[in-house]
What we know:
By secondary structure, this protein is mostly helical.
Amino acid sequence: MLVPDIAGCYVLSQANDYYCKWMARVRVSLMPARAGHNGVTTAGGQGKEGTVTGTLPRPDRAGVSPDDDRRLHRSLGTASLSAITLSSVIGSGWLFAAYNAAKVAGPAALLSWLITGVATLLVSLVFIDLAFRRPLSGGNVRWPQLASGPLVGAVIGWAVFLQAVYAGPSESTALAQYAAKWIPGLVENETLTLFGRLFAVAVLGMFFYVNMFGVRFIAKVNNVVTVVKVAVPLLTVVLLLASGFDTTNYDVGGGFAPYGVSAALTAVVGSGLVYSFTGINAAAVLSGEASDARKTVPRATFIALALAFAIYFGLQLAMLFTMPTDQLSGGWHGINFKSPLAELASLIGLVWLSWLLLADAVFSPAGSMLVSAGVKGRYTYGAAQNGILPRFFAGVHERSGIPRRALLLNLSLGAVIILLFGDWKSIASSLSFYYGLSYAAVSIAVCVWHAAEPSSGWLGRWSPAVGATSFVLSGLILYWSGWEKVRVAMPLLLLGFLIYLWRARRGGAPGFNGVWLVVLLVALTGVSAVGSFGGTGTLAAPLDSVLVAIICGIGVWFGRRSGLAWRKTQQHEEA
């Protein structure tokens, strides 16, 4: 069968017709509710599409009806979830992250990957614990709102919408940068030219256009893409490392940390390392469709994390120690590749691998974009349904059952992002920032639920420690991304708070439980402005990072306290 992945990937599994059934459920769920005879609520459109009739139960606090959850097929096993998660993690990040990290930090990029690996492990444990407590599909959005209330839900919902908007441009720019080998004039100084940006916009538009009409062909194409996008990176690691391991690069490039430890910290977000692991929560996000979520989600997550980390760390070793020495005459900052891995393979004599990488660099992002364009459109549709965006964008085309307005909004904003940024690194690091905030919010959810239900979690008594550590590390990663990213991303995030205030004035959102998150974001912005990571430098390292850790630690205390207060309020209302 074809199993849907929340990040837009499909993998082969047991029965050929599952995908058609899944899309039928998606189409029904996307149809706006309408009043039927005798005031009975119905869902679905007119014509041949099925309808669901009867009085629907009260939705949960994330706006999802229990009937919606019950209609999901709980059929995903460990193998399917592992493949889904690994396919989600291995995206365009493998094409550029190792190169960008080497250029920013030199051999200290290995430290960057270790930090990213530890942070990803902690976040994975948080998601596993939440899936163990409450196996919900789409939990990455629903868990923060259920645990912390509508204000946190609005900000995180806005962050998820921004993830949806940035996702397409990250893939199309990756495709365009590697396509420069065949199409002259796309790239200059590692940045897309105006022609290159217009080309990337055209590619993005083409895949959004295909998503306007149907999904059967899309799924079939991506089955092949899923296999290729995992096999080619593994082959690349093995062949590059087998070609020769030259440790003299360690000294020629200026030692382990030629640009300081701070460069290694900046590379965690700024070089796309966090972005490279952004699909690691896929098994947990699909826990509502797992056959036995308490067993399958942990297994699948750990299998995918181990394999993905081995691939990424191997690629970084290859980039650092198979690089020809003459390329380091200007230091690690001086390396300049348009298509990094392909050019490296060519330099060391693996010309056929170079051509394979160039082909896969177009093939894999294209396949991912083909499906993710539609899935991210559902993110935007959901944001409109929850009131984060105007209801206009929740419209569904009756004949196709597809939220075309949401797709067009993502396409329009994605085109603007490509024209403004023009390179994969800038877009991926911005996207990483919004994922980091989402990870922080789910970390607080673990702390809240452990305090209320100490015996129900997968982590047991370690839940609060892991949740708090994950939150603090997520905050540090946001700070280490640098002032250039913070000053752009934070105001965009605070728009989510302004939307919440607008809804509150209209009577659509109660109270201010969760205001701690807004205060935390403002405080992090202030420290970033005067800190050593692209700020004025008034607050020197490592004092700035220590201060951020303290602020985040205080945030954990307030977040837990606020979440428990929110739970009591809801229990009182429902009593």
